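Bug report (template v2)

What were you trying to do?
Predict the complex of my protein with zinc ion.

What happened?
Run completed; filing so the output is reviewed.

Input:
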Amino acid sequence: MRSLIDIVDFSVEELYGLMDTASDIIAHPERYADACRGKKIATLFFEPSTRTRLSFEAAMLELGGSVIGFSEANSSSAAKGESVADTAKVISCYADIIAMRHPRDGAPFVAAQNASIPVINAGDGGHCHPTQTLADLFTIYREKGRLNDLTVGFCGDLKYGRTVHSLIAALARYTGIRLVLISPKELKLPENIKTEVIAKHGMEYVETSDLEGAMPALDILYMTRIQGERFADKDEFLRLRDTYILTPEKLVTAKQELAILHPLPRVNEISVKVDDDPRACYFKQVSNGKYMRMALILKLLDEAKRNPTRVPLICEDGAKIIRNRMRCSNSRCISMVEQELDQVFKLTEPEKRICRCIYCETKETATEEDLK
Ligand SMILES: [Zn+2]
């Protein structure tokens, strides 16, 4: 049995497999109309995200299955203090697969370690949102016919944008990807992503604050929302705000084959005047997301049927595990609130004694004593 917690849990080949299935569903929806007859998905949304929940529910219904679940934490047992582990065990008795959204980093990982059915991470705090990345990758693949040899511009909030970080991590596994990172200086891509993802995979990148200057080179433009509250200086925000709004005028120098993506919801960062441009792909991206979720549900249910044993997620790569000797410093980590959860770290860089929390991947440095 497999779960999907982080996009890199799946190999490049597996992702191509999912995209092939999604393409086949689009071409022949009638062949899949009863594929999940009698199966139930539980959508466990501990924080509201209506569009993601509806996408999972529509995906399961179009496969002939049915849906149970809740859409906010105060209508669930979590409000009475039930642990994520117990919720996962209970729901395993009712459903065949779980899609979980949770405000805490690592909660779906804890669920996957305790459920006897597959778990899909539908967004955990600031950590991962792998099914959005599936939608993004599939949209690029459908529009360009490839995931290699592309110049990909990311524009807007590159500092806090979880979808940007996940898509960069996913693209790092393909060849010939050039990144153009377009943002105000306050919202530049974090250094750790540059060193641990971009440099590690030898990706080419440039940073600029000039969207119009970057435009002619781009094959893909991934727009994100800039939130005013991210700026210490409000005047600076007001001065910059319009610079990063995509308008038809700014697209004059763009390639005819450009594909414009956005994880949605948009506020005003893409003018509605761009919506009729054939290069606007952000509504197709929503539809592609549903088809990829259908392909994902099929794959995980099939793997669970063939091999019902849970794969222990933490010891796949043989790294040393440190249990209950260090504490995670990330205040959003699930281990901060679930009192009986073991504090588990993986030794990722033994020479520097650097460990990562298995729930949220926060880096901590171990002492010699911790490693004994
Ligand atoms: Zn943690």
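What did the reviewer find?
Residues 282-306 form the longest helix (25 residues). The mean pLDDT is 93.
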